[in-house]
Each structure stands twice: as C-alpha cells, then as structure tokens.
Amino acid sequence: MSTSPNISCANCRISELCLPFSLSNSELNLLDEIIKRKKPIQKNQTLFKIGDTLSGLYAIRSGTFKSYIENAQGEHQVTGFHLPGDVIGFDALADKTHPGTTQALETAMVCEIPYDVLDQLSNQIPRLKMQIMSLMSAELNYNQRHLLSINQESAAQKLARFLVKFGDRLAERQLSSKEFQLPMTRTDLGNYLGLTVETVSRLLSRFQQNQWITLDKKFVTIIDHSALLQLTD
Hints:
Blueprint: H1 15-18, H2 25-34, E1 36-37, E2 46-48, E3 56-62, E4 65-70, E5 76-82, E6 87-88, E7 101-104, E8 109-114, H3 115-124, H4 126-152, H5 155-171, E9 179-181, H6 186-193, H7 197-209, E10 213-216, E11 219-222, H8 225-232
Antiparallel strand pairs: 1-8, 2-7, 3-6, 3-8, 4-5, 4-7, 9-11, 10-11
Helix pairs in contact: 3-4, 5-8, 6-7
C-alpha cells in the first residue's frame, strides 16, 4: 500500500513517461494499491546492489541515479544514468538477482512496484504488460546504441552525443535541453563513455573554447546545438 496518500499515478507529473499508455481510473487505482512510495534516498545511498534479490521495479519520481557493474578486482563500469520517469530494475528479471548496483547521485524519490504483485496485476491489465515490455525493449535499444557509439565514435563525438542526448532526455521531462546540471562526476562520465577523466576535461574545455558550450562547474549551457549535432553526424 502506498505510504504517501497524497501522491498517485493519476496526479504524478512524470507518469506519462513510465506509464504513457492511457489507463482507466479503475486500473490506476489497482496500480496505486500495490505501489510503495519509499522515503527519500540520500546521495550515494544504493537503491539495490549486486547480488540483491529482485523485489520489484522502481520508477524514479525525482533525482538521478547511476548504475554500475564491477569485476573481481572491484573495478567499476558505469552502465547508465537514470532520470525522473525512468523505470529501473529490469536487469534482475532473468535470474531474480541484480547483476549490478544502482546508486543515487543526489537526494531522490522512487516508487517501488513489487514484482510478484506486478506480475499478477499485469495479467489483469494487458496495457500494463505491454508497457513493461515496451520499457524493456527501449532499454535494450538504448544500450545497443550506446555500445555502438563506444566502439565506433571518436572521443569528441562520444561526449557531444552524450550532451545532446542528455538534453533531449531532459526535454522529454519539460526541462531545458540546453541549460542543465550534470549530476555525475567527470570520472563517472568518462567511465561511461570509455574515456579518461583527463580526456573529458580537455574536451569540455575545447567545446567551451569553440563557443559550443559554457561550463560553470557542473552547469552546462549549450550555445551552439547545431555544432554538437554536426560533430555527432
């Protein structure tokens, strides 16, 4: 049962991202009955970690997260950054345990959808099952495109594409696509793009010198969007 009675899928401003298919009021009520709206997750706190048993899927209401896997030596590989409206936890569906860790980059709020109940409910609401499949497919496609970028693009292309796509994702949330805060560290950004932190810093400086962007600590302003797009092409 929801722990926040004043919040529901019907009045959530980002529900169209995690639930873009139109559900009836009765279907939304059924979903609200199983959703657990958890307490705030603080910066650097983990939502789940490698080896944890699958308990549910998580829809991000506010804040940002990063996901990473690690090898036997404890070296991390960042696999994704997640924004409000994203649904995470699909990585555990196959083996019912999480192969990686997801950690808050800032104070965040999530809605937990218990998996066992969700599985039953999705059989009652065909459009909900369709949405889960759609989200899984979108995540797979995004990861494939990222892998292609990592293997085939230059360092400058990788960073330019990331800035453009990050802005696009913010625009989907009715936020500015050209003025935004990067919540991740440059180390994490470089790790995700397959670049050293020195390369990330050098390229950001070059983009700024070219007057494509301005940078104030973590705050980015895209001045010449077309130049970044042209570089990615």
